[in-house]
Amino acid sequence: MIPKLIVFLALTVTVLSQNAEEFLKVVEKSVKHATERKGRIFNPAYVGSTYKQYAGAQHRPTFLYNQQPVAEEKFDFIVVGSGSAGSVVANRLSENPDWKILLLEVGEEASFLTDIPAIAPIFQFTNYNWNYLAEKQENVCLGLDGQRMAWPRGRAVGGSSIINYMIHVRGNRRDYDRWAASGNPGWSYEDVLPYFIKSEDARVEKQDGELRGRGGYLTVSDVPFRSESAHAFVRGAQEVGHKYVDYNGADQLGVSYVQADQRDGYRCSTEKAFLRPARERPNLKILAQARAIKILINPKTNSAFGITYVKNRQYFNAYAKKEVILSAGAFNSPQLLMLSGIGPKEHLQELDIPLVKDLPVGQKLYDHLTFFGQVFTVNQSIVNLQKAVTQPSAFVELLFKGRGPLTSLGGVEALAYIKTNVSRDPDPSFPDVEIIFVGGSLSTDNGDFYRKTFKVSDEIYNAVFGPLENGFTWMGIPMLVHPRSVGYLKLKSKNPYHWPKFYGNYFTDPENLDIKTFIAAIREVQRISDSPSMQKYGSTLVTTKIPGCQHHTFNSDEYWECSLRHISATLHHQVATCKMGPSHDPEAVVDSKLRVYGVKRLRVVDSSVIPMPPTAHTNAPSVMIGEKASDLIKEDWIKAKGNIRSKDIRRHSP
Ligand SMILES: Cc1cc2nc3c(=O)[nH]c(=O)nc-3n(C[C@H](O)[C@H](O)[C@H](O)COP(=O)(O)OP(=O)(O)OC[C@H]3O[C@@H](n4cnc5c(N)ncnc54)[C@H](O)[C@@H]3O)c2cc1C
Ligand SMILES: *[C@@H]1O[C@H](CO)[C@@H](O)[C@H](O)[C@H]1NC(C)=O
Ligand SMILES: *[C@@H]1O[C@H](CO)[C@@H](O)[C@H](O)[C@H]1NC(C)=O
């Protein structure tokens, strides 16, 4: 299927590019490369880079970020990491022509292939993924290869927004009001709403107009392609009592079609949204494939003054006259802090890292788990079939019209926010589960990608999903939005090239409420399956028991608990590793202005500051954090006077 995919792409791009010969060479070389390197089935990063070699710079978006390092260069601000938050910060700070900004990013720039929404999971097998694995945990991940969960993370200009599923969710009003109530002034819903609006260019049909943005950098769209099964699900959910809502509007509780970080049918990454419009500013220097390995901190003043980074296998120092801003994401921002001596004292001593500041870095880690062990079949071809995606017509539709099945978010078509009957929250409008409608299951692509991204074992795949390969399946995968279980991360060593060690600690809350909530959600999905609209297509629960849980009665609570402990996996929303909180909070790493406690001129601006798991996927909240932090930084350096004068800025320089 995959070589075919490449050929179709080649043909369509060839027609467009009038560069037939060059492009065919690229494809040829890339297929050869893919077959030679086992494990890397298909490497779009490689296709991209080879493409560059042949086609030269006239093809967008090649060579956008190829500036060169200069030894001992001075800047006003250094931003580390160009992901969902870092891209925004680089853009907003460089709006001030008097400030010189350096943006460092380990990853390379994306190729045109990452723009195609339907093949999102493929990029987890490329260099655009850090490819982390969580440590093994007793009694969870029992049905995953090696019993270790994959924790993917973007590693590209644009960060995780290059490989994510593009689901756009702001979160619940209550999420932000809780941040504020726990001692973070400025982060209530009313405070952050203007920033969601500021970034956004909303092009969705069902929207609460006054709460949505127009003309912002980040395009948020309806997905042009909708399968008949998605319509059935959205109708069915309403039939059993869920309201049809704009979940990014006034009320979140309810059901709707998915809203996407998408522009004209293609991925709208933060690279596309925020960096591309800013990249030609003379005061913004963007270095791709440059890895920050240490924050430079003056031990006398505990003041950050620069970054040591590696590019082209050479070490460089860059200096920040004003601030260093870490936007390296929820895994690498805490890693960099600890490598630089900011972290738990005992842990740093263990690793022989000189202590700069004792802080609980990495000690908190919330994550959103999901579960794909409940599958339904329907009796007609109403689902988003893999076949439709690999038709040549699908490519033609995408390339010429920005429509068709290739615009699908890897199969995700609708979301429902529900409050299950085991929720203990007094607020009737605060969901405890999100249900993600997928017009397919792990069997849809014959086990090629989806199940491999989650590392579901052959044994389970062959028993449960293999027999469904030619059938019509759908899933409503629950996502536990407010988990009680808390994980952590730490360093493996002081070598900046070593992976940190990740501990999910899933399903460890003493009252087992995380499991109970999942089971309640599983039953709610069954209720939707029983709705007239789903029954019109004979929606039926697949009753094959997963290997390892055969001793339980199918559909009993015990069966689902066993299943959950076999094939739950992360939906990649790890947060709180550099938690924001007031000075009296023993878990806090940064204050409400995102300044690292006890170290001057150093902030963390990304998903790692999120103090509690939000009722959202974390891309939109990370963009919001980038927007809000940029204003906080501007306020601090351009004191109140209203207009920006370089004299004012200089007065605050070292
Ligand atoms: C597979 C996957 C699917 C997802 N799906 C969705 C979705 O559908 N919707 C949604 O809202 N969210 C989704 N998410 C989550 C969301 O994308 C992330 O939470 C969000 O992008 C985090 O933003 P960030 O700015 O904190 O970090 P990132 O976007 O991860 O950016 C961090 C950047 O820093 C770089 N970096 C790290 N260390 C260094 C260093 N030492 N030097 C230089 N650069 C460095 C990294 O390479 C990376 O580019 C998904 C995530 C993944 C991995
Ligand atoms: C929740 O609802 C399910 C059925 O939908 C029922 O079996 C269960 O007993 C209920 N639990 C509580 C705590 O009410
Ligand atoms: C699918 O099932 C429904 C409900 O049982 C039935 O009405 C319908 O005719 C079936 N369709 C097909 C194509 O079998």
TrEMBL record:
Residues 1-17 form the signal peptide. The lineage of its organism: Eukaryota, Metazoa, Ecdysozoa, Arthropoda, Hexapoda. This is Glucose-methanol-choline oxidoreductase N-terminal domain-containing protein. PANTHER family: GLUCOSE-METHANOL-CHOLINE GMC OXIDOREDUCTASE, RE36204P-RELATED. SUPFAM superfamilies: FAD-linked reductases, C-terminal domain, FAD/NAD(P)-binding domain. Keywords: Signal. Residues 329-343 form the Glucose-methanol-choline oxidoreductase N-terminal domain. InterPro entries: FAD/NAD-bd_sf, GMC_OxRdtase, GMC_OxRdtase_N, GMC_OxRtase_C. It comes from Brassicogethes aeneus. Belongs to the GMC oxidoreductase family. Coiled coil: none annotated. The keyword Coiled coil does not apply. It comes from the Eukaryota. The active site is at 573 (proton donor), 617 (proton acceptor). GO terms for molecular function: flavin adenine dinucleotide binding; oxidoreductase activity, acting on CH-OH group of donors. Pfam families: GMC_oxred_C (PF05199), GMC_oxred_N (PF00732).
